[in-house]
Amino acid sequence: MTANTRTRLSPDERRTQLLDLGFRLLATRSLDELSIDLLAEEAGVSRGLMYHYFGGKQGFFEAVVQHAADDLYARTAPPAEGEPLERLLASITGYVDYVVANQAGYRSLVKGATAGNDSLRAIYDTTFAALAERFFTADPGGDVFPDTPAVRLVIHAWQAMVEDLVLTWCDSPAGLSREDLLSVITASLPAIIDTLP
Questions:
Q1: End-to-end CA gap in the chain
Q2: Residues 67-113: pLDDT tens digits?
Q3: What is the CATH superfamily name and number for domain 11-60?
Q4: Which Gene3D superfamilies match (predicted)?
Q5: Residues 94-120, buried b or exposed e (16+ Cβ, 10 A)?
């Protein structure tokens, strides 16, 4: 008979472990399907410990969604060097791969943000503003993405289109390969910006 031994973790390590587990579970479940009971069971900890770290279900959801948003931001980081469009392609590739790998969780983040959950909306808005800002840091000379109010407006609308396109493609690729999808997304932004006066 083998005994289950628990590893004693520091409070920060335990909280990180619980967030990582919540994030992994969110990849295949919606936020509505996550619960304190499920996470406590999966982690082999008491419900009380979950309440200690997160204060309740809403606090846990917010922490997991913030953890997921931080992961999305990290995975979509463009390379430090290269032409702006090459860097855009690398970032878009990271985004598409992230959404494909985390569909259920990503959809529930979008749903929560649009359904009036102010906390989830704030996380969503902050993350997408940070992602948009990368266009200007990746192209400091403004050769492809000049930093103007009109370009910022176009990028904001383009992000919404990309999100919808990728989620729809996940459900029904409509004959587009991953490479085709990446090409359409990457080429569309400079094409739209080129139409600006």
A1: 75
A2: 999 999 999 999 999 999 999 999 999 999 999 999 988 888 888 78
A3: Homeodomain-like (1.10.10.60)
A4: Tetracycline Repressor, domain 2
A5: bbbebbeebbbbbbbbbebbeeebeeb
Q: How many CB atoms lie within 10 A of CB 31?
A: 22
**Over 60: is that where the pLDDT of 1 sits?**
no
CA 37/CA 124 separation, integer angstroms: 26
Per-domain residue ranges for the chain? 11-60, 76-194
Question: How many angstroms separate the CA atoms of 79 and 87, rounded?
Answer: 6
Do 54 and 9 touch, CB atoms closer than 8 A?
A: no
In the predicted structure, residue 42 carries a pLDDT above the cut 80: yes
Find the mean pLDDT for residues 178-194. Answer: 97
Give the pLDDT of residue 6.
Answer: 59
* DSSP H helical ranges for 27-83: 36-43, 47-54, 57-75
Residue 5 has pLDDT above 80, yes or no: no
Q: What is the pLDDT of residues 7-16, one digit of tens each?
A: 678 889 989 9
Q: Which CATH architecture has domain 76-194?
A: Orthogonal Bundle (1.10)
CA distance 7 to 70: 26
- CA-to-CA distance for 151 and 189, rounded, in angstroms? 10
- CB-based contacts of 30, cutoff 8 Å, min separation 6: 104, 105, 107, 108, 111
Question: The tokens 């109010």 sit on which residue?
Answer: 149
